[in-house]
Amino acid sequence: MINMAKRIAAFGEVMMRLQVPGYELLSQASSLHYTFSGTGVNISSALARFGHTGYLISRLPSNAVGDAAEAYLRKLGVNSSMITRGGNYVGMYFLENGFGARPSRVTYSNRQESSFNTAPENTYNFAEIAKDIDIIHFCGITLAMNDQVRRHMKALAKEVKACGGIVVFDCNYRPAHWGEGGYAKAKPHYEDMLQLADIVMMNEKDAMYILGMQTDQTERQEQLMELIPAVADKYQIAVIAGTHRHINNDNTHSLRGFIYKNQAFTFSNLLTFSIYDRIGAGDAYTSGIVHGEIQGFSPEKTVGFAAAAGMLAHTIVGDTPMSSESDILRAMTEAVGDVER
Amino acid sequence: MINMAKRIAAFGEVMMRLQVPGYELLSQASSLHYTFSGTGVNISSALARFGHTGYLISRLPSNAVGDAAEAYLRKLGVNSSMITRGGNYVGMYFLENGFGARPSRVTYSNRQESSFNTAPENTYNFAEIAKDIDIIHFCGITLAMNDQVRRHMKALAKEVKACGGIVVFDCNYRPAHWGEGGYAKAKPHYEDMLQLADIVMMNEKDAMYILGMQTDQTERQEQLMELIPAVADKYQIAVIAGTHRHINNDNTHSLRGFIYKNQAFTFSNLLTFSIYDRIGAGDAYTSGIVHGEIQGFSPEKTVGFAAAAGMLAHTIVGDTPMSSESDILRAMTEAVGDVER
Amino acid sequence: MINMAKRIAAFGEVMMRLQVPGYELLSQASSLHYTFSGTGVNISSALARFGHTGYLISRLPSNAVGDAAEAYLRKLGVNSSMITRGGNYVGMYFLENGFGARPSRVTYSNRQESSFNTAPENTYNFAEIAKDIDIIHFCGITLAMNDQVRRHMKALAKEVKACGGIVVFDCNYRPAHWGEGGYAKAKPHYEDMLQLADIVMMNEKDAMYILGMQTDQTERQEQLMELIPAVADKYQIAVIAGTHRHINNDNTHSLRGFIYKNQAFTFSNLLTFSIYDRIGAGDAYTSGIVHGEIQGFSPEKTVGFAAAAGMLAHTIVGDTPMSSESDILRAMTEAVGDVER
Amino acid sequence: MINMAKRIAAFGEVMMRLQVPGYELLSQASSLHYTFSGTGVNISSALARFGHTGYLISRLPSNAVGDAAEAYLRKLGVNSSMITRGGNYVGMYFLENGFGARPSRVTYSNRQESSFNTAPENTYNFAEIAKDIDIIHFCGITLAMNDQVRRHMKALAKEVKACGGIVVFDCNYRPAHWGEGGYAKAKPHYEDMLQLADIVMMNEKDAMYILGMQTDQTERQEQLMELIPAVADKYQIAVIAGTHRHINNDNTHSLRGFIYKNQAFTFSNLLTFSIYDRIGAGDAYTSGIVHGEIQGFSPEKTVGFAAAAGMLAHTIVGDTPMSSESDILRAMTEAVGDVER
Amino acid sequence: MINMAKRIAAFGEVMMRLQVPGYELLSQASSLHYTFSGTGVNISSALARFGHTGYLISRLPSNAVGDAAEAYLRKLGVNSSMITRGGNYVGMYFLENGFGARPSRVTYSNRQESSFNTAPENTYNFAEIAKDIDIIHFCGITLAMNDQVRRHMKALAKEVKACGGIVVFDCNYRPAHWGEGGYAKAKPHYEDMLQLADIVMMNEKDAMYILGMQTDQTERQEQLMELIPAVADKYQIAVIAGTHRHINNDNTHSLRGFIYKNQAFTFSNLLTFSIYDRIGAGDAYTSGIVHGEIQGFSPEKTVGFAAAAGMLAHTIVGDTPMSSESDILRAMTEAVGDVER
Amino acid sequence: MINMAKRIAAFGEVMMRLQVPGYELLSQASSLHYTFSGTGVNISSALARFGHTGYLISRLPSNAVGDAAEAYLRKLGVNSSMITRGGNYVGMYFLENGFGARPSRVTYSNRQESSFNTAPENTYNFAEIAKDIDIIHFCGITLAMNDQVRRHMKALAKEVKACGGIVVFDCNYRPAHWGEGGYAKAKPHYEDMLQLADIVMMNEKDAMYILGMQTDQTERQEQLMELIPAVADKYQIAVIAGTHRHINNDNTHSLRGFIYKNQAFTFSNLLTFSIYDRIGAGDAYTSGIVHGEIQGFSPEKTVGFAAAAGMLAHTIVGDTPMSSESDILRAMTEAVGDVER
Lengths: 341, 341, 341, 341, 341, 341
Prior knowledge:
The structure is a homohexamer.
Chain A (H helix, E strand, L loop, with lengths): L6 E5 L3 E5 L11 E7 L1 H11 L3 E8 L3 H12 L7 E3 L5 E6 L8 E4 L17 H7 L2 E5 H4 L3 H16 L3 E5 L4 H4 L3 H15 L2 E3 L2 H6 L10 H16 L3 E9 L5 E9 L2 E4 L3 E3 L7 H15 L3 H15 L11 H9 L8
Parallel strand pairs in A: 1-4, 1-8, 2-6, 4-5, 8-9, 9-10, 10-11
Antiparallel strand pairs in A: 2-3, 6-7, 11-12, 12-13, 12-14
Helix pairs in contact in A: 1-10, 3-5, 5-7, 10-11, 11-12
EC number (chains A, B, C, D, E, F): 2.7.1.45
Pfam family, one (chains A, B, C, D, E, F): PfkB
Enzyme class (chains A, B, C, D, E, F): transferase
């Protein structure tokens, strides 16, 4: 479907991640490690690492925090030329690492006042942007922010479509962001995005909870195989991909990816692995799917590549994937080995 | 005037200070050192260190950041039993240390949404609090926040007055917080506080800029000696104290403290010293004045103690003074010495 | 038996823990992470975190180390108003973290000269203290120190009993502290404490080795079920609780808690979990038992709560438990989950 | 002369700087802070920070060190699209910070085998590069490397000249790199570069030692004023600029900049300041001169801007200047101030 | 065969190990932990820790890096009196720690120019050295360096033999160092060393690949049992020892050691363990074999001791073993235990 | 007098220095940097760095702390073969760095129970030691410890004298160690040592306060010039050397060294310098005097070398001097320069 497209943009907020080093709690420690990430950052960085140009469309304040964020994104390989400056704040979250029976804990600072979430109507020149890119990526976290942000998203998606570009949408529903009665509030906005999207990241839970679709199946796998084709059909989506994740008793995770395309499902092997950093690994999977589609990989290779990209992202410090295409291809074929020297 | 009072409360916001270690900029570094402070924190901690009970009256969120803040305040010696929990956020600021010709730089996160600044009307039981304390401290930074916070301040000041307590007010005008036309906006609120206050921290600039008082004098010292008695007289203030600070070419600072009481000025020696951490040193001076008044020190001893407390606070890491009464008394009398062992 | 009691004190030494970060040995590294702990600290902090007032009765030197210790205890939530100052030293231990087949290693500095262990006869006003508390906690490590410390312990236990308070005693026998012929030397002192105690932490090994009780049973479980009722009967102890721990080949530990009360045993589920920090986890179990008794939990809930508290304490950095009641209740009911955000 | 030019490239090696933190020696410490720098990096980064596009023309290995270098340069704002990959090594140097009477110490690893210094003949497409840039910067350190590197330099300078671009050359003679009989060996190569250059950084010592020019003057200032016009005349150089630096007894440095242009000298004020990091400050001065020329500043403003840029670079961690145009303009006009908040 | 020999030297290069702390990549982090190691360092340090005198015969530059290396070796217990100074560089490698599915990665700096690898012919006084030692150790990594180094090795081996000393040779073939057609290039040099050696570390792969020996067996164990006796016979080697290592799916390793001596194989138990630091563990095994031979342990004890030494070395930070003889003897007999206190 | 002697031993305690990094107090920080030092360590390390063999005669425990201490001493260049193992503890002190007006603060742990201070009578084989060394160094801190240590000191001094060795004694009186009535208690022990000593470190204050000598002079310089010759004469001391130190208002120190030998005083220049680490700098001065005497330097060169060694030691991290002979000779002749590269 897609072939060798090169210019990819992601629209989304840049978050400052303030992580307690090691396993102390915020009330025990005295220092924080900071990085800048966000779904859009992760996607554009990962695709830049695969050899494409990865833009981020976002808004940062003109102060020391905004400068630090932009420098960090450039270090990640993100092309920052579509970032505008204005507003006053960067959204932040604190991360305390869990260990074994104690889960990791995220505490947000007030995000609604961020430069991104308070961007006024004509902040971005979407018409210009749409001409300069081949693919645009959005996610459900952004969709949850506020009406103005949702207007930005939809306007940009339409411009890209109008210019012949590809729209990728990751459903990524976060209950905390939609609040009470969230699914009902979210549904029309998700439907708008699905109607505009060519590639969608989701699984059967999104179909059931967000879109309110029904099934008599009780097993996840059967639910998936019944509902995803229905979604693809209803919203005319070329590619739907996603994962099933299981957390094992020994703290390893098991992950199986799927891709639904041309009326057919393809599944990756079930991968089981240890976790260093859970956050952002879903974005690595998405970037693998997008890259596979761009390169014209077979569905088998695409879903295997995406699953391995996701697995490796769990072994990387920070939210943002750092693996090259060759790292991932090697992880698809080799057993865990000894030191590389 | 005051004698051996023991229970002191400060009303004010707890800020999370996120400091880049060493001399890197936020766009160079990757870790932050965090502490919790604020004028109220500094005052109540300093007075606790002098042997009094130092309460903080404030509001913190019921999350990991609020827990960390409260634990940190207890470590500083602050009695946290008058802190209420609610709201969602703690105000934060980033600090990049300056060096020589490059000044330190502070970048705030959005403070208006903090738990303290969004505390609704009946958050605090001021009637109860007023019974349990002898002295209450307020500052001009808090006064700049918003109308609700100002209502809290004035209500508390009145309750303490009504119970026979002492009101301390530090003018501490910060232009950035009042914005355009700030002095005009600030003046009526400052006047309300001055009318309620027994001990006021200010100097001639506050009289001229905030209160709009006029003088024909052109030298700071003469302006001070003309205007401070006028302020004391107009607002019926028992004690007015403050400092004159000069930044020398070799990056040392020179500081002289004054106290005006019983129609007479008393000045400290001019102290010249190196600076490790500038922030919060004014609060050390205030705590020295309050302690001198509590203990019934002579004006000479009070102003010398306060100036030495201020000087030592510049040599301490972080916003909050850490010197004991004996540390300060020794600094008043001795030259800088060799290692203490 | 006990109900909603609120003021709990622990009597014991404050130790400075000097830990090599990561997995280096003391002869490889150059920095140490320091904290202050001890059984009494852990118990009073854990119970303060559950909503009670947790006092520590101890003695610290009037120097920089004593100041640091007291500040640290306050940060942990310990009420320091029953700590006296005097003597010259704080006991210290160095901790080198083990990894896999290499066990962790503890090296003590000279502890007998500590402020706590050299406290002279009238250091503490036990009559006053006994009036202000509902529960007092002691442990076998303190009992091993020296005759003067043992006199303090027994005098305090008697005062609390006389005022109607509850005495908790954790047998916690450490062979290194009693030296040669240790059990024989220890027995009479343990018997004195057991006669004063209402709640005792121990298991069948303590009964056999310290108290010299005999059994024909060869399995731990049967030994436990024969000997613990005999101990309860002989010393008239209302509640006896403890754990059986097993170290698995994959370095996980398995733990099952028991409580014996009203002539009946109740056991927790067998919990199997990864270990971050082994030290102090037994104190978390004790604090769970005490809290369950205070709150009037059923034996099932008490022993489950204590076991989960113990499990979580193994996932926390440092000796001292940091989990809230709600953290523990959630760990009792939920599987290990994904990031909390 | 030059006006609003925007695309600037620097040709030079990327060095890995491995710095012992604080003031320990390499034989005392166990960790190093690493960054990537070099004269070309510093120049292109500084000019990017002033709003231009700053390219680096260099060669890095295709391995983890080369990846780290390129990411770091992007973070500094350097456009990395003209960097080629090949060879095996990055040049490195160890830096031990001096203190007071003890000077800083630099120890190089073997630099001749670096990717940059072993770049074969057709590594760079200079014809293409010359079309895409307005200004090219070279320095004497690069000139000292080896014959192949010198051939690259001269070929690139000629291409840029041929395309109408501006050539900047910083004499920057390092005795250690030229070895025995260095000046004689260096002279013809310096002359080649001077003949190609439009803007040259040097002072009277370079004229005397490298170019072998003679003067009867004995004072630096008179030597400068006699020799620089002679150099400008002989090699037809439009702008010559440089500094005189003096190290004071109190470890501050004093710096005065000059610019010689249109047959006239202009001098900056003498700036005296404390030093945080000495290395790379000369490059900040150069970038100020180039920026002033680009913007069409008056000579007074250009030399003042360059001197202030140099002064601020001494206050910044690392080799590479981090100040914005507005930071520098403010430093030109204001006294050292208090915290910016 | 050997008995209570005490003076052991190893001939080999000192490498500077520059390790990224934690699990970040070189392109994410900003600091490195540095140590100095190498096979010779590991062997001489390990044997010094067992009570022998462990010399290193090597060459280091007379600069800050050489000083740091020598200080570090002394700290490890290596006797540095046989180290000569000269040349300019120390070989270095960067280490990025792997996690789970992501392997560790080593990146070398240019090693051929190191002081050791450029040591001219008469650098070492081998005749003197041979008189002062009882045992000399070499390894295949050194043999791969260059012709001059190989001449040093063989000359030293012959001198030691001539003085009646014992020669230990560890085959340790590293494909990256020999390059294309490596086995053919390596074979004659290996044969020279095997003819001089008394104790050899190798397994069946070395026999097949380096020495080109053939077998019809397809299982590792049978290949080993057929080929090792053939090697011992052909080259007249008294002791051959080595290991079989298997990497399990859960990232643990399993290791079984063997020793072939007096026409008989002896095998250790299969040890399965978690890995903290993989590098250098083989040297711990070698040092265990050498120590066992020196002490006259039975083959069972020797191979068990060596395997336990190897296992413990995997739990130690850095390349160099840190376990004492008593640590290893305890690990041979005990299950993993609780904290040692 | 002395010439090219090579084997120097120092007798003294090894202390563990636990330093708070940066400028935080022990009650603010959470980590410590640890090193091992002591006057004897400093002297033997400094002389080893000058090319001699530097032994330490001391006693360390057989545990992890003792192992770390010995490894650290070897790293410093100290020959550890005269260190015995036994006892249980290493003496420790905590160091909080002062800043400007706030002095550094040292807090000791209990030192009397250290392995060194509890060494029983036949711990050391002084007869053997005396044969193997040319020079022995003692200091007044050791003399203050206890009777057993004093017996060791005097026995060793006598053995060395008997074997024709040189005895160095540094008076180094520390009031805190002698307690009340200290001078009277100390005097006979000092006299014993002075009678045995060939080279003594002291100044006029030691003569007046410890030895009770009287003078009518009121200026330090005149007191010195009257009393030192009297001491030399009375106790038959060949060389007496020492310093006058003055702490300036800008926190720099000024130091002038003197040496009295052959009835003549020689003084160094007055050196004024910034201080990084005050502790141990006196030992650097002593090591310079001893080295000058060994090498047969002129008194001018010896005192200049010692003063420069002392100055440089103030710029070094930690107690122990790290400068080579060439570093010191350069510091004697050059002004502070720019980076060495």
